[in-house]
Amino acid sequence: MENALKLSALGSASLLFVAPIHEFEEVRRSKHVGERSVFPFVCMWASSTLWLIYGLFIGDIVPTVVTNLLGLACSCYYCAVYAWAVEPASRKSSTYNLFAATFLGICVVVTFCLGTFSPRPESWVSMQDADSTDSGGDERAQRFLGIAASAATAIQYGAPLAELVKVIRRRSTEGMSLALAVVSLVCSTLWMSYGVMLVNAFIYVPNVLGVCFSVTQFHFHVEP
């Protein structure tokens, strides 16, 4: 049961990452982003990057690193297409500013985590017994990265709701992807179930929020 749920959750995460590809192929062909916001895809980029680093840090190549490597590749493609197609110049400039701020934020989180929580170099403890080397730094770093990645995931699920005011005012869901809402709902539900089964708050807390956010998005697509 656990393995089946885990595989289903991983498969749904992969679908979540690739779901917008058709939409962005249309953007690439038309060179027009319409009312779409790049924010959800920047959040996907940040979330995938943090989970990828977390997976590398704990040595979990499969499934964490592999899954989020796909997410990183897809989100970079979406962001690149959006930046290429978005007009006017003022909107393009704000897009680049968002990219820069996100990249800086990721760098700050990783640098702070590794620089503050990593265990001391061996040269610092050369006079001590090897068995006494503090491994708490690794655990704290893993926990900090887990919290940061979980927060990024929660924001990723909720990011499309940034367009909610426009949806209500214009009674149009053009800026919110239906495919992304449906896949997000499936993905967050499966990961929430898996997290509850493991009693792992890093997994189930952001995905409980993901279920709520996805249901809200889906509601506005059904009854805009």
TrEMBL record:
Which keywords describe this protein according to UniProt? Cell membrane, Golgi apparatus, Membrane, Repeat, Sugar transport, Transmembrane, Transmembrane helix, Transport
Q: What is its main location?
A: membrane
Q: What is one cellular component GO term in this UniProt entry?
A: plasma membrane
Please report a single Pfam family linked to this protein: MtN3_slv
Superkingdom in the source lineage: Eukaryota
Q: Does the keyword Cell cycle apply?
A: no
| Mode of membrane association | Multi-pass membrane protein
Q: What is this protein called?
A: Sugar transporter SWEET1
Q: Which organism is it from?
A: Ectocarpus siliculosus
